[in-house]
Design goal:
Blueprint lengths: L3 E10 L2 E11 L4 E5 L6 H9 L6 E6 L2 E2 L5 H4 L1 E4 L11 H11 L4 H14 L15 H14 L4 E5 L7 H18 L2 E6 L2 H7 L2 E6 L2 E6 L1 H6 L4 H6 L6 E8 L2 E4 L4 E2 L10 E4 L5 E4 L7 E10 L3 E8 L2 E8 L9 E5 L6 E3 L5 E2 L7
Parallel strand pairs: 3-8, 3-9, 6-7, 7-8
Antiparallel strand pairs: 1-2, 1-4, 4-5, 9-10, 11-12, 11-14, 12-13, 14-20, 15-19, 16-17, 16-19, 17-18, 20-21
Bound molecules: adenosine-5'-diphosphate and magnesium ion (MG).
Magnesium ion (MG) binds next to helix 1.
Amino acid sequence: MAEIAFRNVSKRYGDTVAVWDASFTVRDNEFFCFFGPPLSGKSTILRLVLGLEMPDAGEVLIGGRPVNRVSPTERNVAMVFQNLALFPHMSARENIRFPLVERRTPEVEIERKLADVAAKLHIGHILHKPPAQLSGGERQRVAIARALVRDPAAYLMDDPISALDARLREETRVELKRIQRELGKTLIYVTHDQEEAMSVADRMAILEQGAIRQVGTPLEIYDRPASTYVARLLGSPMMNILPLTGGAGEARIADGSIAVAGLALGDVAEVGLRPEDIRVSPWDQGGAGRPAKVYEVEPLGGYTVITLDAGAARVRAMVRGQPEIRPDTLVALSCEASRVHRFARNGSAISQPAETV
Ligand code: ADP
Ligand code: MG
């Protein structure tokens, strides 16, 4: 069992709070992602799991066992570091073999594991090269391979593919997800890339300045962000977050620029509209909704991003395909009430009325 949990863990460096009162449970065999902006505490959490740091308060548990006083080697979790340290005088092959040779693994098994991991990470053709002759991306894959051949209770990866170019990153994250499923091992993964987090994670935790703001599956968090902070972090283009005005029974967003029928006001101070939930239709064809002026159009092939001036608000909408919409023309904007996210003055989400969930 390689369940990994924090119970009210805090860690400071001098006056800096790196992790604050963090509690979570990563389940056995789960691909769990920590996602947050730079300096939000992601790497510190991994170091606490690994045992390179001691918490100031709280308890770290691995497999249900408190490990605050257990040494890193005894914890048996394998880390792939952000700044990888491959042995420069060894070939990629020797680097990957190293942890197995060190553990006196039988030669047949070493070669079997090496061939297996080399095929999964597409590095069979570079195994003879020393790190100095590998590209950044290749070095990263060799380092991942070196962690994968061990048989630890869990893997930790700190932004392991950030140095790869975009295309290779897309490929590698698919491989990682596949490898994790095949290995059936707990994997804790850190990234600052929202798309990467959403694409790989079974569940994820969102961090803000060392505090965990929300834990859930990527789609739970995307569909029901707990705050404007979380809402802004996931999704591209970002969620439109607009002030709400108007009286009872008639909600108006950003001085009346988007009509949302049947939206109750209550304590709602701001509303969030995902770009894909905004309906855009030509104004001159009597489209339903309020008028907005098209500011710019980005045709991305499969979909089109339209930036609009809706009253005082700048709004971004994303529509399927390649609609005939031109800059500086008028369009009608609308959004179904059930797709509107509601936020209180302090930024926390107000849950949707039952009938719209
Ligand atoms: P992330 O990985 O999300 O970028 P980190 O865990 O590295 O965040 O850092 C969290 C906070 O802790 C930051 O404010 C960072 O400056 C601080 N911090 C991290 N490591 C140290 C350290 N060894 N000494 C002092 N401050 C640190
Ligand atoms: Mg980091």
